[in-house]
Write a structure and sequence with these properties.
- It contains seven helices and no strands.
- Helix 2 runs antiparallel to helix 3 and helix 3 packs antiparallel against helix 5.
Length: 153
């Protein structure tokens, strides 16, 4: 569902936990920002989320791909598909709005938006189910093995 295609069952099993690492870092960082009610802490995460939506992989994936992978003996995290990139872009938007709400002195909105971010990231971290990727598939259709997208209809 997140757009990783062409992986066999063993590769999926080896990567499952590591695909949750970047969302876990984002969840923890967001929680710290909410705990401190700090627009600066939350805003500092936005570029990382945005890069996850633009680059082939999230910057936090480098921790695994260029370090831990050699100890874990697993495959490299493959390039992100459009659904997972969509999730990163949605996260960057929610984080931006969260930081803006705190900065503007509207903490209730900041806590609500940040809480939404934490809830969605928690689903991904605990189950591997990515709500934004699911939403992408509902809007644009599932990504096919060829990399094309079927129309949603």
């Amino acid at each position: 569902m997140q757009g990783f295609l062409g992986l066999d069952d063993l590769q999926i099993a080896q990567l499952d936990g590591w695909l949750r690492f970047s969302p876990l870092v984002c969840l923890t960082w967001t929680a710290a920002g909410l705990w401190l009610a700090s627009p600066t802490v939350i805003a500092a995460l936005v570029p990382f989320a945005l890069l996850g939506g633009i680059l082939k992989r999230h910057p936090f994936d480098a921790v695994y791909n260029y370090g831990l992978r050699f100890f874990a003996g697993g495959p490299k995290i493959p390039a992100y598909g459009k659904p997972r990139k969509f999730g990163c872009l949605m996260a960057s938007a929610v984080l931006s709005l969260t930081a803006a709400a705190f900065y503007a002195g509207v903490p209730a909105a900041g806590y609500a938006l940040g809480g939404l971010m934490i809830a969605l990231a928690s689903v991904n971290v605990t189950t591997g189910f990515c709500v934004p990727s699911y939403t992408y598939a509902k809007i644009f259709g599932p990504v096919r093995r060829t990399g094309t997208v079927r129309s949603a209809g």
